[in-house]
Amino acid sequence: MVVSRIQLDFLNSKFSSYKCYSHFFIFGLILAHCTTTFSNVRTSSVKCKKNISSIYQHCRLHPDGVHDLDCFGKHNSPGIKTCAWKRGNHTAKQTYTLIVRHENKNYCKEYKNVTGISKEVELYKKYNMTAEVFENSESTNCTKAVFRGITSTLLRCGPPYNVNFSRHSGRLYVNVSWQKDDLKAIEYYSVRYKAMGSLLWSKSSVQCRNGERCTVENLNSSQVFVVQIQCVTNEKCLQCPLSDTYTVSSELTTQPVIINLKENIAERKGHRLLSLTWKFAANEQHNGYLVTIWKASGEDARQQMKTTRPEISLTLSYSAYHLNISAFNNVSVSPAVNHTILQQEDLEAGKLNVTVHDNTTFTIYWKDDLIKKYVCYCVEWRTKEHETAAYMSFYQDAKNQRILSGLTEPLEPYKRYSITLHIRSNKDTCNIKYINNSESTYGTTQFYFIEGSPVNAPTNISNYSVTLDSVGLQWSTIAEEDIRGFLLGYIIHYIEYQNRETHPEKNITVDPEFNSYELGDLKSGTAYQVQISAFTQAGAGVRSAASVFRTNHQDFSLGSFITIFAVLITVLIFGTPIIKRAKRILWPSIPNPGKSNTMQKIDGPFELELLESINILKVEEWDTNSLHIVEKEAVIPESTLPSTLPLLHHCEEDEDELPETTLDDWIQRDNDDDTGDDIPRVPADTLSETQRTNLQSSPFAFTSEYTTMELFQQAMPQGTPTNTSATEDMESEPEDIDFTVVRSELDYVRQFSTSPVQDWNGIDEVATVF
What we know:
The N and C termini lie far apart (185 Å). The chain has ten helices and 40 strands. Helix 4 runs antiparallel to helix 10 and helix 5 runs antiparallel to helix 6. By secondary structure, it is an alpha+beta fold. The strands form eleven sheets. The chain has a six-stranded mixed beta sheet, with no helix packed on it. 15% of the residues lie in helices and 32% in strands.
């Protein structure tokens, strides 16, 4: 049997050939012939010329020329071998000539004008063969490559045409795909590896059965590895060349971290905009991120989006969603960060209504005529206890309602259901195809299959603002699962505690929005018993435990007691300063003359120097309005005393009009003193004693607004009894008194008075004493 086959461009693994087989079984002769044409270039196979060696003797081996000639075959075609080579580096367009010889047999074939880099040739078994390929054979720059081998040992398997790698938890997983001709021939294959940058491969390769995934364990997750794969030799695979080197990236072990999740209401009603931002470890090399999102209700659709930036924006309905984010490279996917986007309730009331027929059938109605624009809808319903909502999608183009029946899970009594209607713009199918920007929410409402009365009562009942006839009550609301229906309000039951067997009970209804109420029209000082219950459409629930409170008494209250106690404490603490301040404001004290700047105590004896002035006052100034006492410490010289007295007397009388003759008399007397008239002198000690005696014994008293008798007596020195004769002598002969050595501490005495005429006798007495 003779078979001829030609192949061009083997490395690309694309064959374009026509096969023609002719079999003759009658005489055991089989003839087959096949002709292949490539790119309008006809390749001829002819016997070699006798002088073939001399024709190509100018061609030489060169590293920049054609090189790496290799010939091999497959187990299923033992007589067919493929010779392949690599192009030279300095030629733009090449044609090749391939010459194949059997060394042990006179066999030589020449293949001219080959434009590819491979050629299928026919060879005999068990013979040594030699192959030569010439590049630019007709040129002076002709180069060549040579191959020698035994035909029977040229059966080759591999290398693989496709390899996939994945890494996880310190393991490397390898999936290998082989050429179709090698699938049945290869039984095992091996994987060898080394760290990037290392010169040594692993000590032992990992062998795996063909068709199964190969696992390399105990690898450093953070290292990058270089991997090569080859089959394990057997009878059908005598040659197993190594594959090209594959670079396997490091394993991603860090989970992304969500740093910002912002949710906004979109301009289109029923949509919300979700902006999500995350970060990832900088030391782990990754190619991008995988964002996977699906509905929490359990619909089959899942949408996976790839992004190279750590952020994404989504347009979603008000439904609940699950979302996870992970980083990836060519061999690894990082652990995912998971996040649940909660359902958002549509607060607009009155858009949906539900009528329940039985535990597996209900009808949903919607207000607007949506069928003009939408025909695909989805309904989701769930209880508060269920994390996953049930759903049903449907097509509706006739009415603004839909009967949903055959529910997979029957409705439960006394459970509150939240139901949401979504509308979908994609009319091709009502089953959701993708998640992002696929649907919008129309409305949400709540319903019960069967309502019941509350099984619990309000708790934490307390009172406040207790008065004579009212009290404020407040309480805690009931949990939703204990109401078992829509709460319609509260009932306050109260009665007089002492007369609860004979008096009727009173009830007051409170709206469900409030949890406090003020009871009025109560009796003062009376105890009341209070109980509170809630009610739904099914009726009133259980009552709370009885609470007793008492209104305040008429005559006394805790507030009054506290007020009195506070006032008493305030008086005890701040009473004395307050009383003193009030006394100074309301009852001003009369000044003490003893402490006045114009009156001081005189502890020692004193002498009066103005006796004559007082005598004149007695005669001429009967209506006195003041009494001045002037202290004088200095000794009056004898020469100046006569002239001083008239001046003092004149100053004292500037407010009182004296008779002109009296003033002239004073002036005349002064002149007489100046002229040196002799004045009878009295001894100073005699005069002092006389003055002291007369002042102490004088019975006069002043009646005025300012000065009292005690004050004046305090100002006068105490001493010997009154000497009336001395006083009379002084009155009768004042000119005989000697003023030379008089030391007086009382220069002037004048009384302020508005006394009537009958009081002048007292003034006379004073004048007589002086």
